[in-house]
Design a protein that fits this description.
The protein is α+β, with helices and mostly antiparallel strands. About 40% of the residues lie in helices and about 10% in strands. The radius of gyration is 20 Å and the shape is elongated.
Length: about 70
Amino acid sequence: MPHYKDTQNKLHWLDSTEHEHYLPAGCIQITNIEAAALVPQPTSVESAPASLADAILADPTELAKLKTALGI
């Protein structure tokens, strides 16, 4: 599967090179290693769902707080 990066270093991929015309202008083909380097690494914000799940399991009232915050 070919990988590409655009002019803003955003990662794109295609099933086949025959569809390259669908890519944004300025995309270039890159190696799998280069593509792996462009994949965003998890941050503490992205790990929040795990800590939220832990909080809900530890205290069931947290689920009610979350539902209220989400309006459900």
